[in-house]
Amino acid sequence: MLLPLLLRPPRCLPQASVVLTRCVLTLRCGAPRGLRSQAKNFLWRWRPQRLHSRGRSRKTQSQEEEWRNRNKTALTYIAAAGVGMIGLAYAAVPLYRLYCQATGLGGTAVAGHDMEQVATMTPVKERVIKVTFNADTHASMQWNFRPQQTEIFVVPGETALAFYRAKNPTDKPIIGISTYNVVPFDAGQYFNKIQCFCFEEQRLNPHEEVDMPVFFYIDPEFDNDPRMARVDTITLSYTFFEAKEGQMLPLPGYSYS
């Protein structure tokens, strides 16, 4: 009478728990040999499955941890690449400007020269070139800025001196900074400036007026370049901007918008 009550499935346990409970009670309560054999076989089959499920759970956790570590590494590389790109973006303009000054790219006159070469170069007397001068100011710049001469005639291998004049007509001091280029652009690599006022801040007090010199020469190699065969006029152009914190100057050889 007591065995059926013990083997009756409790209502609060799931089906798998009911089966296990019956098996355990069968083994403990002296049930017939055949019933006990079936209970042992069931418990033996159930135990490996449970151990297998535990091993699979541990393997899943290990894989999840490995993926988390990989994701952290990937995010670290992405963040480092982002910081590097931001740094390159800030450095791009000055680096490009230096490159243009060194190579004449974008109509930029070449900066940096060998004074010994300047002293020993031979002028090409039969090749006369007209150099014209242009002056502009940005819309926000209140200076009056103009060239002192509209044009001069030079030959490759000969130094020349020109002047620009700037005036501050306002009642407050203004700091200006200029950019420049040479047209045609391909001639920029032969246009060498020994002294100029470009990319340097110039402060003018109220109603102050100054002359700004440009000392330059055209490389004698200009005459040997087939691309320059039909070039007989070169224009040197300056644009002044009001120097403000965080302001980005335009790249040489490109218009400002």
Automatic annotation (TrEMBL):
<dbReference type="InterPro" id="IPR023471">
    <property type="entry name" value="CtaG/Cox11_dom_sf"/>
</dbReference>
<dbReference type="GO" id="GO:0005507">
    <property type="term" value="F:copper ion binding"/>
</dbReference>
<dbReference type="GO" id="GO:0005743">
    <property type="term" value="C:mitochondrial inner membrane"/>
</dbReference>
<dbReference type="Pfam" id="PF04442">
    <property type="entry name" value="CtaG_Cox11"/>
</dbReference>
<dbReference type="InterPro" id="IPR007533">
    <property type="entry name" value="Cyt_c_oxidase_assmbl_CtaG"/>
</dbReference>
<keyword id="KW-0472">Membrane</keyword>
<comment type="function">
    <text>Exerts its effect at some terminal stage of cytochrome c oxidase synthesis, probably by being involved in the insertion of the copper B into subunit I.</text>
</comment>
<protein>
    <recommendedName>
        <fullName>Cytochrome c oxidase assembly protein COX11, mitochondrial</fullName>
    </recommendedName>
</protein>
<keyword id="KW-0812">Transmembrane</keyword>
<keyword id="KW-1133">Transmembrane helix</keyword>
<comment type="subunit">
    <text>Interacts with CNNM4/ACDP4. Interacts with RANBP2.</text>
</comment>
